[in-house]
Amino acid sequence: MKTSKKTAWRLCGTVCAGLLVSVYGPDLLDNIRAAFPGDALHAAALRGCALATPAFNRLDPDDRAACYAMRPPNEVDLSVSAARLHRLDSDVVQRQQLDRYLAARNDQRD
User: Fold this and answer.
1) What is the pLDDT, as a whole number, of residue 62?
2) For residues 44 and 98, what is the distance between their CA atoms, to the nearest angstrom?
3) What is the CA radius of gyration of the chain?
4) Max CA distance (Å), the chain
5) Contact at 8 Å (CB) between 57 and 63?
6) What pLDDT is recorded for position 70?
7) For residue 24, what are the contacts with CB-CB under 8 A and spacing of at least 6?
């Protein structure tokens, strides 16, 4: 019996989800929420640890605890991150390159 690619991907996704639940158990959602916090201060601290340490694993609770001990979440990190984002948004050269790319892509569609 032949199966379509869509069915095969669905089966693969179901198996992967089952493996994740079996490994992490019922704490899976709590672990994901802790690894990707909604709080901007904690998110900035984790981002800083990920940039500073290539081996940092934000899904590991011990790594997160060590990160918070090494880089306590504070307003300074958040303001520096906001300044970098603002600088990227106001970069004229980057905006011009994006406009050229979008124009070329629209020309290809026509």
Assistant:
1) 92
2) 27
3) 21
4) 60
5) yes
6) 83
7) 31
